[in-house]
Amino acid sequence: xxxxxxxxxxxxxxxxxxxxxxxxxxxxxxxxxxxxxxxxxxxxxxxxxxxxxxxxxxxxxxxxxxxxxxxxxxxxxxxxxxxxxxxxxxxxxxxxxxxxxxxxxxxxxxxxxxxxxxxxxxxxxxxxxxxxxxxxxxxxxxxxxxxxxxxxxxxxxxxxxxxxxxxxxxxxxxxxxxxxxxxxxxxxxxxxxxxxxxxxxxxxxxxxxxxxxxxxxxxxxxxxxxxxxx
Amino acid sequence: xxxxxxxxxxxxxxxxxxxxxxxxxxxxxxxxxxxxxxxxxxxxxxxxxxxxxxxxxxxxxxxxxxxxxxxxxxxxxxxxxxxxxxxxxxxxxxxxxxxxxxxxxxxxxxxxxxxxxxxxxxxxxxxxxxxxxxxxxxxxxxxxxxxxxxxxxxxxxxxxxxxxxxxxxxxxxxxxxxxxxxxxxxxxxxxxxxxxxxxxxxxxxxxxxxxxxxxxxxxxxxxxxxxxxxxxxxxxxxxxxxxxxxxxxxxxxxxxxxxxxx
Lengths: 230, 262
Known about the structure:
The complex is a heterodimer of chains A (230) and B (262). With 230 residues, chain A is mostly helical. Chain A has one domain: Arp2/3 complex 21 kDa subunit ARPC3 (Orthogonal Bundle), CATH 1.10.1760.20. Helix content of chain A is 76%, strand content 2%. Chain A contains nine helices and two strands. In chain A, a hairpin with a 5-residue loop joins strand 1 and strand 2. Chain B contains nine helices and two strands. Chain B is flat, with a radius of gyration of 24 Å. In chain B, helix 2 runs antiparallel to helix 5, helix 3 runs parallel beside helix 5 and helix 3 runs antiparallel to helix 9. In chain B, strands 1-2 form a two-stranded antiparallel ribbon. With 262 residues, chain B is mainly α. Chain B has two domains: 154 residues, no CATH class; 77 residues, no CATH class.
């Protein structure tokens, strides 16, 4: 779950906002370029945003009492890159805090950093690493989305641990504690999310491959090969 | 499967007609005051005032409000317990060292810290819910435009806003149809069915988005939604209430400085 309103002390709220804002500014600049070049991308951006909203609203209560949810940011990171994803995520997180009281305004910066910046960056890095190798593209999508989800929670634990270090063992101990609470639900959930998004990607490849090729997400040969498999 | 969207409540709440900036100012100042307070009493006071406003003036049902409050509260409680266990202190009531690098303890100071954080979450959650339940998103788009957020970002936000409702609609229909056909009868089927639903909803909403943009392009859409900013006048009574609230809450923050539970 996103960090909720009021949980972080104000100093940390400001720190995370300061980290998030330059990334957002860069994302807005990139978004402007994409919008000018290819207006057809607008509906896809809207759908990925809506998709992130719905996936990350599916709160699953876990044994430890905390809530976990999928993030859905990996797919957007693959299609549009991490910076535009951070803008989409910022909009989605704002909507979530105002529609569902999920997350918050003062902690929005911290949530943008974990879900909108670190997660997508990791997903995108994995996609770039595996893109031109012989690895199956669905496996690439699976790994990128599952790890984007894992690293989002990794960062959330980091944010919580930095704000509330343990007395004995300091930051490290509390990081391990928060990680342990999340890991129970988050590891299986990240795997499920990877599988689900890989299957969603399969539908896109089967039904609307043209935009993937035009946006150079994967090359035509790779898509054709995947369509043969699908 | 999905909780009620606050947006539905916000569209018909009792404070709908009050100037947006007054409502925003009340919510945001309450969040700031909660974050600045150092004792547990002032966030609770803010929560009390704002909850009363939401329930009595905005006439939101108690049940809806309680349900909305409980989920984050549960999460906050769990995280507060972790903080109590790891933060240590001088007056130790109980301690346990299961691993060499891990030491859990409950002390007077840690209970105070945990309880204070819990109260701060309650206070600022009530402020967030106050904004969410009294101000519909459509009003906030106007605020965003006045705040000079770039047009294409607002544009994207509005497309996402529309897609969310479209997707929710799709997902509910497909989900019902899938449940009737026993799509969620087993673990493996569930994943497959869920992915199928996501895929189908994704592609239909994408098509709908394509159609929307094409239809708007045909009507001279230039990447800028026309926003009808309804200008609600700033009335004296809400303004007076806002000023009183900020003053009284600030006094509460100062007066309850360093107040602890134990």
